[in-house]
Amino acid sequence: MDAIALIAILALSALAFYLHASKRHMRKAVSNLGGPYNIPLLGALQLAYRFDPKNIFQIPTELKNKYGDLFKLWALNRLIVISGDAEFNEQILTSSVHITKHRLYGVLHDWLGVGLLTSDGQKWQSRRKIITPTFHFKILEEFLQIFKQQSEILVECLAAKADGKTTFDVYPFVCGATLDIIAETAMGTKVKAQTGGTKQYIKAVTEMTKMLGWRFLRVHLQSEVVFSILHPFKKLQSMKNLRIMHEFTRNVIKERRKALEVTLGSQNPSAGTTSETEQILGTKKRMALLDVLLQATVDGEPLTDEDIREEVDTFMFEGHDTTATALSCTLHLLARHPRVQNKLLKEIQEVLGDDLESINLMNLNDLKYMECVIKESLRLYSPIPIIAREIKEDFKYKHSTIGEGVLPAGSELVMGFYVMASESKCFENANEFLPERHQQPAKMHNFQFTPFSAGPRNCIGQKFAMYEMKVVLTNIIRTYELLPYGEKIDPLLGIVLRSSTGMQLGMKRRAT
Ligand code: HEM
């Protein structure tokens, strides 16, 4: 027995020594970076396990104050570099080599497959090339009609709460609108999230994003196997939701394929669309993202249904959840800042008058103060608070204070957008909601504030989101006065930013 124990100890020690030694070159490469104390072999595991969805906004700030904008920590034999450094981020984000998403994004694979958000290499490049034209400004112009119609429905839905007394969470209302918008614009399909249709799908999406947000920061639950063993009930629930969501998206694709075949098969497509088909297509001539995917080829081969399904799921998720959070936070902040709200209303009246029909891309571009309001809301409540990459090849950087350095292949990089956007050295009174700060030419590094990320893997839907938010805000602000009711936002990290208190406010119809 003693001999077996001794052999086991020796074997474990040898393994530990091997693992430690195998990372020697990495330790040497990042010796120029500070960071918390790493217990031999364990690293700063105690810290990794302190992170939870709530304190994810405080701990990185504490660490940054202690160790600087760029620091390292080890979790077992994993090297994690955390960056809140604009100069460093610029070099990594603009690189076309270091674009591999971190394994954290793996929790999304069962749902989104390996689509634009999660893929890398050749696959990502060819998908990005196919999809980019579907966000061209000419197409966005056509989407304006849908932004208007859906925001009018949202305004009607909010009427029940707008009695000047009720405190409510605006997020579920806005979320219904953004889901309707992405489904109708990008997929050419009406899901009627705001008016009670497709309830099952919406419930499944809501439960799924909540559950994935919970798993995201629990390192051990990122493995499907461990998650299934430790939380079998949640795994079953998640499988049920996946079935509902995938069935829904497969049906969307099937219907759209059918409709497209009819359109393409008819002699005069613009005149020959049947009213049923037209209903599914949304309008006759719009080339929705889904149409493009259905007709795309890679190396002469059409995309498979599964290829298309992963993009449809990616856009249905990424295209509604982020914007819903951004819009709800903006409304919540406006409710608490009547001065800003009044100034915004004045701008809307001056630029657009009373007629919603007059909205076009040009006059939306003229809503300059609104743009500052949205930016300031994104700064305080960044919908995507962190992003992360895996470093596959040595990454050499030059830094004005740190000097030259290397992030060795095999290391992991986390970029904290949330922490950077609240940096008091760059933003005076950083905790205050001051849209005017975005009117001055920025006195800071361009990469200090990147809510949509930047470089080749930036947000493909950035312009879409800005126009969508402008139309929805215009419609709400000119109909309702927002009132400072309820609790303040208490940020939590889902995959997208959430609040434990919801996004509360009150509303009162404006006198006409
Ligand atoms: C306020 C709203 C939005 C914010 C703040 C936002 C933010 C971001 C950020 C930070 C990324 C980079 C993620 C990473 O590197 O891991 C990203 C990527 C992405 N976003 Fe957005 N997003 C918004 C709206 C949208 C919309 C409306 C769509 C679709 C219509 C969209 C589609 C995507 C996609 C597909 C990617 C992956 C792009 C790629 O890797 O090539 N986003 N977004």
From TrEMBL:
- Pfam families in the record, alphabetically? p450
UniProt keyword terms in alphabetical order: Heme, Iron, Metal-binding, Monooxygenase, Oxidoreductase
Q: Which domain of life does this protein belong to?
A: Eukaryota
Which cofactors is this protein said to need?
Answer: heme
Instruction: Please state which protein family the record places this protein in.
Output: Belongs to the cytochrome P450 family.
Return the protein name.
Cytochrome P450 4d8 isoform X2
Give the gene symbol.
LOC101899206
